[in-house]
Every structure is written in C-alpha cells, then in structure tokens.
Amino acid sequence: MQSHLMLSSFLAAALLFMNGCTSNQTVRTVDGQSIVTDGKPQIDDDTGLVSYKNAETGQTEQINRDRVKSMSELKN
C-alpha cells in the first residue's frame, strides 16, 4: 500500500514538473500577426521553417523564418 502511495506521489510530481517546463509562446510576424503556440516552436535551420503547435486550433503549422519578427514566452 505504501509503495503505491509513493509511486502515485512521484508520478503526480513528475507530471507537474513536465507541465511547468512547457509554456505557451507568442510568435509575432513582420505583418503584425500574433500567433500563440502550445510549447516552444522548433526552428529548422536547413529549411528556414519554424514549426509550432497552434494553441487555438491544436494543429501543427509552419511559417518561414523570414516572416517571424520575434518569439517570446508568455507569462502564465
């Protein structure tokens, strides 16, 4: 019984830690658009594309890096 309680506590702490590591970001484009992402966008240096999960739609999307003005973490 006590080992199950310890395991449950460990798993709960691990989930809280993992959720704390992932934060939404704002991608601002050169044309003034703001995109809120779920997690940190990934930059592909070979293709010049920025991949991100759109927080509103849940869809994975890409944008050319030359269209990105800035990327910043949102304060929760």
Describe the model.
Helices cover 26% and strands 37% of the residues. The protein is α+β, with helices and mostly antiparallel strands and 76 residues long. The chain starts with a helix and ends with a strand. The protein has a 3-stranded antiparallel sheet with strand order 2-1-6, with no helix packed on it.
Helix-strand makeup class: alpha+beta
Which value, in Å, is the CA radius of gyration?
A: 17 Å
Uncertain ranges: 9-13, 15-20
The rounded distance between the terminal residues' Cα atoms is: 37 Å
Main β-sheet: number of strands, strand sense, barrel status?
A: 3 strands, antiparallel
Strand content: 35-45%
Shape: globular
**Element-by-element helix/strand order:** HEEEEEE
Tally of helical runs: 1
Helix coverage percent of residues?
Answer: 25-40%
Strand line-up across the major sheet: 2-1-6
What are the salient characteristics of this protein?
alpha+beta, three-stranded antiparallel sheet, 6 strands
Structure described in brief:
With 76 residues, the chain is α+β, with helices and mostly antiparallel strands. The protein has one helix spanning 2-21; strands spanning 25-29, 34-37, 42-44, 49-53, 60-64, 68-73.
In terms of topology, how is this protein built?
Layout: H1 2-21, E1 25-29, E2 34-37, E3 42-44, E4 49-53, E5 60-64, E6 68-73
